[in-house]
Amino acid sequence: MDSYLPMSPKAGARLLLPYLFLALVTSQTAAQNTTTTTTTPTTCAEGVHVITARGSNEPLGAGRLGPVASDLIAAIPNSTVQALNYPATFFDYATSVAAGILELRDALESYSRTCPQGKVVMMGYSQGAQVILDTLCGAQPYDRPVVQFNESAPLNSTIVEHNVLAVILYGDPTHAAEAPWNYGNSTTNGLFPRDNITACASYAPKIRSWCDEGDFFCALGDDGEIHGSYFDAYGDDAVEFALQLWEEAEETGGDTGSEDGSGSGSGSGSGEDGADNDRDDSAADHLGTNWRIPFVLGVAAICSCFAL
Ligand SMILES: *[C@@H]1O[C@H](CO)[C@@H](O)[C@H](O)[C@H]1NC(C)=O
Ligand SMILES: *[C@@H]1O[C@H](CO)[C@@H](O)[C@H](O)[C@H]1NC(C)=O
Ligand SMILES: *[C@@H]1O[C@H](CO)[C@@H](O)[C@H](O)[C@H]1NC(C)=O
Ligand SMILES: *[C@@H]1O[C@H](CO)[C@@H](O)[C@H](O)[C@H]1NC(C)=O
Ligand SMILES: *[C@@H]1O[C@H](CO)[C@@H](O)[C@H](O)[C@H]1NC(C)=O
Ligand SMILES: *[C@@H]1O[C@H](CO)[C@@H](O)[C@H](O)[C@H]1NC(C)=O
């Protein structure tokens, strides 16, 4: 994060170049994926319908989740991809998340109405991961300097039970260390830890949320690389996970059951050694890094120069 300290305009422009490049690359390749839309389809996929929610400051489209989405739909014929059309802005993060929740709720309600048998796989990166979990689980009001989230109600559980097949998340800022759907080796809370996971508890077998130690956004760490590493590190795991749930649903021909607990993640969230020590460590860690939150958000708001 230190590399985002105030800098000369020239250095700032250099920093922006990769993002401009990413925008160009994305707009060129988007046309090649004829199954990718930014609106909710009015026809039903025979395979899965993938909804991607990109990270902050990524251009509209599947973004860095694109290759993961592409791998999944290559494995399941007649599948479609919808890139959630939400701002994904960083400078007004909470407003962007709120818009994303409304958009995703609409998409899920509409798709499940059109396709009562439809199977949806959601993939979210960073801010997009927060949007997805806030939509499914609801969110408590959260009032801090710089960022104020409003309360939101959980999605109608009938939709999740019938139509949501799998949820894949990378670098979720609402990472809660105790959640049963955690994967990766982080044992610490994220920037905006989800304080009530009850509404989503029964969906745990459908959810995998990857967060590695050192990621600032999902684990309050200080490694600048980890947050962008999930696609390569866990892309195949995510595809395999969704594929397995798809095959199970095909076999049973029924709902995207979440009751039997099969495929339930053991999660690596609780750590193996000395639970008490872990708690103290993470509390100290949290205090120690807390000052960075308004600082990083402030710097990011001014230069809006990195993907969260
Ligand atoms: C579209 O295809 C390109 C490669 O041709 C890939 O990099 C990109 O991630 C894909 N996007 C989606 C949404 O599948
Ligand atoms: C489904 O996929 C198969 C093979 O990819 C293709 O031949 C068929 O036309 C597709 N069906 C629809 C409805 O798109
Ligand atoms: C929260 O709700 C208030 C009152 O309705 C509204 O003015 C504000 O814009 C909302 N904030 C977000 C981040 O959605
Ligand atoms: C949830 O959706 C189902 C199916 O559309 C409907 O029957 C039920 O009333 C809804 N529940 C709530 C609380 O809106
Ligand atoms: C956590 O996992 C990442 C990715 O596999 C690895 O690079 C890192 O060394 C691990 N960290 C710890 C503390 O085990
Ligand atoms: C957590 O959420 C559940 C269901 O959404 C609710 O019943 C419960 O009261 C909440 N707990 C707290 C402490 O807010």
TrEMBL record:
Keyword NADP: no
Protein name: Alpha/beta-hydrolase
Record's compositionally biased regions (Gly residues): 254-272
InterPro entries: AB_hydrolase_fold, Cutinase/axe
Domain of life (superkingdom): Eukaryota
Species name: Sodiomyces alkalinus (strain CBS 110278 / VKM F-3762 / F11) (Alkaliphilic filamentous fungus)
Signal sequence range: 1-31
Record-linked Gene3D superfamilies: alpha/beta hydrolase (3.40.50.1820)
Disordered, as annotated region: 250-283
Stored PANTHER family: CUTINASE 4 (PTHR33630:SF9), CUTINASE RV1984C-RELATED-RELATED (PTHR33630)
GO molecular function terms noted in the UniProt entry: carboxylic ester hydrolase activity
Pfam families in the record: Cutinase
Keyword vocabulary terms for this entry: Disulfide bond, Hydrolase, Signal
